[in-house]
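Q: Here's a chain of 90 amino acids. Please give me its 3D structure as tokens.
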Amino acid sequence: MREKLVELVMKVVNLLLVFVKFVMLVLVLLVMSFLLLVVIDFYLLVMTLLLHFLVILLLYFLKLHPLLLLVMMLLFQLSNVYYYEYTEWY
């Protein structure tokens, strides 16, 4: 009985860790996307490449599922659409 309880607790802790890792990735993405809103277009490409590289490294080191990379890139591209649609930098 005690062993089953320990297993259950470990599963819950692992799920919480995965959730925390995902939230960290989303926060990094949001912060970098916000930074993109305050830079000029010349730096947009550099920041985009750095952000993609950073997300790939995070996913690699945190050992998360590769589909999360696709989700992060989609969110980032949506932030780019917002950037070009609602700012007057272009």
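Q: Can you summarize the key feature?
A: Helices lie at 2-37, 44-62, 67-86.
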